[in-house]
């Protein structure tokens, strides 16, 4: 089922990030349904919001933290993730 595939995919994203960055807590919010009316909407592409609590990421600049996350998810951003919103909780 779609939900199951999605769940596994989100776990994959979390694993990838946790492999490279010390993260205390991470939530992925799927906002894809908000974008159905967009011209480029494609059901295979996700609009995701990452809510991350990480002492490490909080200790570096926001730009550096975002760049680091984008670099780790580079392949996903080319294939499966259409838009990524990153919130680093202070």
Could you explain the architecture of this structure?
This protein has 90 residues and is an alpha+beta fold. The chain has 4 helices and 3 strands; from the N terminus they run αββαααβ. It has a 3-stranded mixed beta sheet with strand order 1-2-3. The radius of gyration is 13 Å and the shape is globular. The model has no long low-confidence stretch (mean pLDDT 89).
Any chance you could write out the topology, listing elements then pairs?
Layout: H1 2-20, E1 25-30, E2 46-53, H2 55-59, H3 62-72, H4 74-79, E3 81-89
Radius of gyration, Cα only, in angstroms?
13 Å
With strands numbered from the N-terminus, the spatial order across the biggest sheet is: 1-2-3
Main sheet: strands, sense, barrel: 3 strands, mixed
Estimate the strand proportion: 25-35%
**What is the residue-averaged pLDDT?**
89
**Total count of strands:** 3
Terminal-residue CA separation: 36 Å
Q: Rough shape?
A: globular
SS element count, helices? 4
Helix/sheet category: alpha+beta
Uncertain regions spanning at least 5 consecutive residues: none
Oligomer: single chain
Order of helices and strands: HEEHHHE
Helical amount among residues, as a percent range?
40-55%
């Amino acid at each position: 089922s779609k939900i199951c595939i999605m769940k596994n995919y989100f776990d994959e994203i979390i694993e990838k990030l946790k492999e490279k960055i010390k993260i205390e807590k991470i939530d992925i919010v799927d906002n894809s349904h908000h974008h159905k009316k967009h011209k480029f909407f494609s059901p295979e592409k996700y609009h995701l919001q990452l809510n991350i609590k990480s002492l490490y990421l909080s200790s570096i600049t926001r730009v550096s933290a975002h760049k680091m996350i984008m670099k780790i998810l580079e392949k996903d951003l080319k294939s499966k993730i259409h838009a990524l919103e990153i919130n680093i909780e202070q």
